Prior knowledge:
This protein is of the alpha+beta class. The chain contains 1 helix and 6 strands. A hairpin with a 2-residue loop joins strand 2 (11-13) and strand 3. It is elongated, with a radius of gyration of 15 Å.
Amino acid sequence: MKITNKSKRLYYVAGQKLIPGQTAEIDDSWKEIASVKTALDGGELVLAKTDAEVDAAPVEKSTKSTKADK
């Protein structure tokens, strides 16, 4: 499914960062996650049209440096 962030805040869903107005494609199983369900019910996230452009950015995982690295 595709979702669009209609809120005024940043959302992180399924490893993707959605700023207001951005659309992401996520697995349908995310509809059952409580936080996503609440955001969809409240209108902060909305289901996007199937032809909507996906423009959300994947979250880059940072690597932590350890004392051994120094």
